[in-house]
Design brief:
The protein is an alpha+beta fold. It contains 18 helices and 23 strands.
C-alpha cells in the first residue's frame, strides 16, 4: 500500500520540476501555450481572412509563398457568384510536433439561389520565418484547402438553368400574346446591366427578362428562379457535380380581363368618338377618351380602354377633375350627416361662398327642392351650400374610405386619385362638386360606381388568383338610397341618354371644367352601373357629360346585354 502512495508523489514531483524549469525558461508568470490552442488560433485567422476576401492576409498565413493562391481564391468566388461565405473551424487534430489539421464547416450563399454547405480540412505546419521568435503554425496551401475536390487543374462553376417562363392569360384562358390584351402583356428582352442589378443577384446581363408591361412588373412570378448546380470542371468538361439546388417554379398569371367586355368597351368608345367628331362643323381631329369596366360583385377589372390606343394610358394613369361625378362621394358623406333624399335644399342660379361665386350649368335654378331632385339635376349651388355640413376632415375621410389618396394595389402603374384636405370654406365647396384640387383617374371613378352597386368598397383586382377581396360594406340603407338617387339621374335627370329597356341603368353625369379659357372648356364624364357591370367614361374636351359620355356607357351596356 505504501508503494502505491509513493509512486504518484514521485511523478508529481517530476512534473512539477519540469513545469518549473519551463517557467524558468519562459519567464516568471508566463505559462506555456498548448499546441492545440496555437493551431486553432492560426486556423481561425486564416478562415476569417478567407471570409473577408483578404488575400494578402491569407498569403501571410501560409507556410511558403503561394503564387497560385490569389488566382485560385478569386476564381473560386467568381465561379460561384458568392455573395457571402462563412467558415467555422472545429477541434484541431495534432498529428505530430510539426503537423496538424483543423476540420471546418463552410456555408456559402450562392447569390440568393441556395446555400452550399460542405466540410473542409485545413492542413497546418510549423514554419520558421525571418523575424519570428521560433516557429509558428501556418496553413500548408493547396487548392484543396478551399474544397477537398479542388485541384490545380480544376475549378468550381455555378450553372443556372431557368425554367420555361409562365404565360399571361386573359379571363378566357387565352394567352395575352394572342388576345386583344397583348399590349398589356409587355415585351421580353435582354437584361441590361442596370436591369440585371435591379432584378436580383441571380440575373446576369443578357438574360431574357420582361422589359415592359406585366412582363416587367411581375418578372419574379413569371420567371421563377433557376435551378442551380455547383460543378467541378476541367476546362469545358464537368468532372463532378458537387451540389444541386431546385429553383422556384414560375406561376402563370391569369387576368380578370374579359375579351367580350373589352371588345364592347372599345367599340362603344370608338363609336362615341366618331359621333363627337361629326358633331363639329367642320369636323375636328379625334378627341381622347377612356373607359374602365369593373365587376362590382368581385372587384374584377373586365376592360380598360384608352384612346388613342398605344399611347398614354388615360384609363389608369390619366388624372382629371371629376366634375359632378364626384357628387356621389359628397353624397355618401352627407347621408351620414342626416341628409336624405327628401331633405329640402336650395338650388338658386348662383351662390357665393367666402366671396367666390358658384353657378349652375347654363344658369339653371330649381329654387327650394328635394335633395333627390338636386342630385338628379346635378345642382351645383345646392351641393356648395351643403358642403359645410362636413368638416374638412370628414370630407377627406369619406374619400379615403373609397380608395382616394392612396396608390391602388395593382400590378400595372395606376395614378393616385387625390382629394386633399380642404383648406377653408371655398376650397371645400369647390371640392364638393369635383373641382378645386380634386384629381381622379377613370379607374378610380369606376371603382366608385362599383362600390355603390356592391353596397361597399372592395379593392379592384386585375389578377384572378383567389377569392375576391372582402367587401367593406356601407352603413345599413346607404346602398339602396344611393342606388335610387343614381337611377333617378338616368330616368329623370341629366343622364337620360343612358336609359335602356330592361335592367335599369344607374349613373351620374359630370361636366368638369379645366384650363383658363372663358367660358371654360369641359370634359364629359359619366359613371354608372347596370346589373353586375360598373363603368366610368371620360371624353376629353367634349362638352356635357350627359350628352357625350352617357351614350357611350349605354352603348356598352347594350352590347353586353
Amino acid at each position: 500500500m505504501r508503494r502505491r502512495v509513493i509512486a504518484p508523489v514521485v511523478v508529481l514531483a517530476l512534473v512539477a520540476g519540469v513545469a518549473g524549469w519551463d517557467r524558468w525558461i519562459r519567464g516568471p508568470g508566463v505559462p506555456p501555450t498548448p499546441p492545440r490552442v496555437l493551431v486553432a488560433t492560426s486556423a481561425r485567422a486564416w478562415l476569417a481572412a478567407w471570409e473577408r476576401g483578404d488575400i494578402a492576409r491569407l498569403e501571410r498565413l501560409t507556410t511558403q509563398p503561394a503564387p497560385s493562391l490569389r488566382q485560385t481564391v478569386l476564381a473560386f468566388a467568381d465561379g460561384l457568384g458568392t455573395s457571402s461565405l462563412t467558415a467555422t473551424p472545429r477541434r484541431p487534430r495534432i498529428i505530430d510536433d510539426d503537423r496538424a489539421t483543423v476540420p471546418f464547416d463552410v456555408s456559402i450563399d450562392l447569390a440568393g439561389l441556395g446555400t452550399w454547405r460542405y466540410e473542409g480540412s485545413l492542413p497546418l505546419a510549423k514554419v520558421e520565418r525571418r523575424g519570428d521568435d521560433g516557429k509558428r503554425w501556418r496553413v500548408a496551401w493547396s487548392p484543396s484547402v478551399l474544397h477537398p475536390a479542388l485541384t490545380a487543374s480544376t475549378q468550381v462553376s455555378r450553372v443556372l438553368t431557368w425554367p420555361d417562363r409562365a404565360p399571361i392569360l386573359d379571363g378566357d384562358g387565352t394567352q395575352l400574346a394572342e388576345s386583344r390584351f397583348r399590349s398589356l402583356a409587355g415585351r421580353l428582352g435582354a437584361a441590361s446591366p442596370a436591369t440585371a442589378t435591379s432584378l436580383g443577384r441571380w440575373y446576369r446581363v443578357g438574360d431574357v427578362v420582361g422589359v415592359s408591361g406585366l412582363q416587367a412588373r411581375l418578372e419574379r412570378r413569371l420567371a421563377g428562379t433557376p435551378a442551380t448546380e455547383v460543378r467541378l470542371v476541367q476546362g469545358r468538361r464537368t468532372v463532378a457535380l458537387l451540389a444541386h439546388f431546385i429553383g422556384v417554379t414560375p406561376r402563370p398569371l391569369r387576368l380578370t380581363l374579359d375579351p367580350d367586355a373589352q371588345a364592347a368597351a372599345e367599340a362603344a368608345v370608338d363609336a362615341g368618338l366618331a359621333a363627337r367628331r361629326l358633331a363639329d362643323d367642320p369636323p375636328l381631329p379625334p378627341k381622347q377618351a377612356a373607359m374602365v369596366v369593373i365587376q362590382p360583385s368581385t372587384g374584377s377589372v373586365l376592360a380598360s380602354v384608352s384612346r388613342p390606343s398605344g399611347g398614354f394610358d388615360r384609363a389608369l394613369m390619366g388624372r382629371y377633375p371629376p366634375g359632378s361625378t364626384f357628387k356621389v362621394v359628397t353624397t355618401l358623406g352627407l347621408l351620414e350627416k342626416g341628409v336624405s333624399p327628401s331633405t329640402i335644399v336650395s338650388c338658386p342660379k348662383s351662390v357665393k361662398v367666402g366671396g367666390r361665386e358658384f353657378n349652375n350649368a347654363e344658369g339653371h335654378a330649381l329654387g327650394d327642392t328635394t335633395f333627390r331632385t338636386a342630385f338628379a339635376q346635378s345642382c351645383n349651388t345646392a351641393f356648395v351650400q351643403l358642403a359645410g355640413k362636413l368638416t374638412p376632415a370628414e370630407f377627406k375621410a369619406v374619400a379615403d374610405s373609397l380608395g382616394f389618396n392612396r396608390v391602388p394595389p395593382f400590378p400595372l402603374p395606376v395614378s393616385m386619385s387625390s382629394v386633399p384636405l380642404p383648406q377653408g370654406a371655398v376650397d371645400e365647396a369647390a371640392s364638393a362638386i369635383g373641382q378645386a384640387r380634386v384629381s381622379v383617374t377613370p379607374f378610380q371613378m369606376a371603382s366608385v360606381a362599383a362600390a355603390v352597386a356592391a353596397g361597399g368598397v372592395r379593392d379592384p383586382r386585375l389578377v384572378d388568383d383567389g377569392p375576391p377581396v372582402a367587401l367593406r360594406p356601407f352603413p345599413p340603407g346607404v346602398q339602396a338610397t344611393m342606388a335610387g338617387l343614381m337611377r333617378l339621374v338616368v330616368t329623370d335627370g341629366t343622364g337620360k341618354k343612358a336609359r335602356l329597356a330592361g335592367t335599369p341603368v344607374a349613373g351620374k353625369t359630370g361636366t368638369a371644367e379645366f384650363g383658363t379659357d372663358d367660358p371654360p372648356r369641359v370634359h364629359a364624364w359619366f359613371i354608372a352601373f347596370r346589373g353586375d357591370l360598373a363603368v366610368a367614361v371620360i371624353m376629353e374636351d367634349a362638352g356635357f357629360g350627359g350628352d357625350w359620355a352617357a351614350p357611350v356607357a349605354a352603348d356598352f351596356f347594350r352590347r353586353m346585354s
